[in-house]
Amino acid sequence: MVRKSSGVILTLLVLTATLALAQTQVVRGQLVTITVRLTDEEGAPIAGVKVHFLDETDGVEIGVDVTDSSGYASVTWDTSTASPGAHSILIWTEEADYVESAQTGVGVVILAPAELRLSVSAPAAVKPRQGFRIRVTVMNAGEAAALDVAVSLNGSTKSVGDLPAGVSSTLEFSAVAPARPGEYSLSLLASGTEWGTQRPLSTSLEVNYSVEFGGIALEIRAPPSVREGESFNFSLALTNLGGRPIPLSIQINLSGAQPERIEDALTLDPMSSVTRAYAATAGRADRVRVTALAQGGGLRARDEVVIEVTSAGSPHRPPANGANATASSRPPTSPPPLRRSSSASGKSEAALEVNVAAETRAKEAAPLLTGEIPAAGSALALVVLVVLRGIWRVEDP
After folding, report:
1. In angstroms, rounded to a whole number, what is the distance separating the alpha carbons of residues 210 and 213?
2. Strand, helix or coil at 367?
3. What pLDDT, in 10s, does the model give residues 16-61?
4. Of 310, 332, 356, which one is at a domain's C-terminal end?
5. 367 in any annotated domain
6. Would you call the peptide bond into 259 cis, given omega within 30 degrees of 0 as the criterion?
7. Looking at residue 395, what is its pLDDT?
8. Which of 27, 73, 175, 273 falls 20 to 30 Å from 281 in CA-CA distance?
9. 299: domain CATH number?
10. 188 and 102 in one domain?
């Protein structure tokens, strides 16, 4: 890999040192060339003098060179092992014939290399053919700037531009899930160029997701009516229709009852159902409205029921087999006994006994005609009575 060099020229005067360049910044790993010139008091170059270069910050000797005919000496500093931050470079000459020792210094800041990092927010599971969004954040975690940054997802590329140190940018991509359930992935790539070195930058990430049939089902089970001020129980039936566990948060709102809000949480195993029971107290409203919402894993389900509220003093409804039904099941009363004539003798009493016996036999023979027996019995009694009176008249003197 070719690394770009940065030149720093220092002018060394005999006994007097002047700094030709102000403090500069380089990226760690960059090759830095430091050049000095040795002249006499008249400004004429001095050749053949050994010059030392020392990184005082890390305590590392950078190199040694001898001034040429123009008075220049230089070294190339590989900053790959240098610590990030400000560095003080000490430069001095050895004494030579008619030349005294001189020294100077230069300050250099070593920047940590640019570093692209990716983070992504995407659903873990989607339904077949479902469209979904992927939010991608690219960040420069280094100290050197990243230039011309771009992010691509499965061949679709979006430009970010330059990213200074510590700066991030967020992009959004759209995707459509395949028709067949299974495990899938998307390839994410961020690229750019490092300032100072022109080193190419890149980082990649795999976005994994599942395509599966799934969902959640929610049903509220509650009594159709309650009394004012009465405590009642209700429950939620929850079902996970998918193939992975789903953490759910549950919110229940009650209008016309206490408490007004209930919160719960649970994790539903794949293809499983669970019932959660709760209790509340009806208020004085005409009805209680129960609304439940379960959501998690990118899924949500909602249900609502209305419970009628009756007044506390309202009577219970009579049973289907009430008092009327009980009274109608009683047997019919017996007909009243016949009155005996004031002139009747023992024979008339015997005739009446025959009448009663005939009525009883009729009941046993035809119990379904009990309503007609009293009339038939009365007619028979009248016929017997008339015959007896005829006999009495014959026997009377």
Report:
1. 10
2. helix
3. 333 334 457 889 888 888 888 888 778 888 888 899 999 999 999 9
4. 310
5. yes
6. yes
7. 37
8. 273
9. 2.60.40.10
10. no
